């Protein structure tokens, strides 16, 4: 029997953050069954945004045509993929080296629970005082005949060649981000959406702007389509839906959400998952107090994002080292890297508009402002929300170029409860941040 203070299952952003924060104080063992580093740097945020860079240039080039920019920008997929791999190929090794340098022990492979303190891997037993489950989520496929023929974001982000005609099933984050990349790189892209809504829960005007931008980029929408089956075709797959819908594509990708199914039998320890993951209390403990869950594997209301996963990893480390306060999340910014960017943080715009006594909303079409006139971005819009009583910023929504820069500025102001005094701060000019005094 090998004894550790803490066993961590899963080496994604959540597990690695916990391991790094514990390494100096506890004897830690991390188990990973696939790629060290987890989804975000291997098959999620980071590779996606490397491919997105080429798509951004394509959109910018198209936008600037009225300003005399000519010529069709073309993307060589194998070379773009090689660029992506020049980063992702370093991730598993780099993560492992980092863990070892910090003094963390690691094992690779499929483990099983032996009892509430012990896991088994390849015939060896490992026990610990505390266990942290940080197993993330994996792509889910719709429950229809032929679903095994569908690929997922994992395969898309590592395609050697870009198929000519592609379908994405679903209209959430993965679909809108990957469809944009595929269309920019020259594929004929179709989105099969079971409603007319995209990115459910986001501001409808913002998602309508994004949807239009995608249509302008020649992405085809098939709204209100209930897919019934997938079948092999000579050149790829047939997608069949209700009311005689059928579409033949070279490859179809399920982007219908992610499943937190651990792939580990939890019955030996008496834990159960909901459809959204493992329930935890305000200390990230499961119903077995020495077994914690963090990151995407948790059933929670917070968005399942990398900074949230890492925050929870650091929190649990502090809790194990003696801190007794419950977890208190900072405000969580979200961003969609689509054909135009949309980002939000804090109080939701719809909530704010419904409560004018409490919130003051400044919702501006900024597409004719210098910053966006310069780049001919017709989608640009910024809404900020202040608390009427304190006059402090409590929420924001940004559409268009520079959304990632502005949303982080707004996040800082909200988190630090800071009043913004344009008389006292100078921003480099011209820049999106130098518009801040007119946005608040
Ligand atoms: C296409 C895509 C794009 C995304 N883009 C963004 C973005 O732009 N910004 C953002 O913030 N978030 C983004 N995300 C979400 C982000 O990737 C996740 O929120 C984040 O990776 C969660 O971290 P985690 O550590 O909880 O889980 P993961 O990163 O999924 O890591 C879990 C690890 O546990 C391992 N594991 C699972 N089961 C076992 C087991 N039984 N034994 C051992 N190991 C196991 C897995 O192999 C994996 O390595 C994206 C996700 C996807 C799919
Ligand atoms: N920029 C980012 O931060 C980013 C990017 C990508 C992924 N992510 C993370 O990954 C998660 C998963 O993204 P996602 O796009 O796979 O999920 P999602 O929940 O965002 O969207 C799923 C989509 O699939 C549809 N759908 C679900 N089941 C279906 C079915 N059976 N048939 C047809 N359509 C169906 C839904 O209506 C929805 O449109 C996100 O929630 C987020 O946590 C974040």
UniProtKB/TrEMBL annotation:
NAD(+) binds at residues 170-177, 257. The keyword Flavoprotein applies. Its cofactor is FAD. Disulfide bonds join 40-45. Transmembrane segments: none annotated. Binds 1 FAD per subunit. One of its GO terms (molecular function) is oxidoreductase activity. Keywords: FAD, Flavoprotein, NAD, Nucleotide-binding. The keyword Hydrolase does not apply. Residues 332-434 form the Pyridine nucleotide-disulphide oxidoreductase dimerisation domain. FAD binds at residues 49, 296. InterPro entries: FAD/NAD-bd_sf, FAD/NAD-binding_dom, FAD/NAD-linked_Rdtase_dimer_sf, Pyr_nuc-diS_OxRdtase, Pyr_nucl-diS_OxRdtase_dimer. Residues 4-313 form the FAD/NAD(P)-binding domain. It holds the Pfam family Pyr_redox_2. Coiled coil: none annotated. Belongs to the class-I pyridine nucleotide-disulfide oxidoreductase family. PANTHER family: GLUTATHIONE REDUCTASE (NADPH), MERCURIC REDUCTASE. This is Glutathione reductase. It comes from Lacticaseibacillus manihotivorans DSM 13343 = JCM 12514.
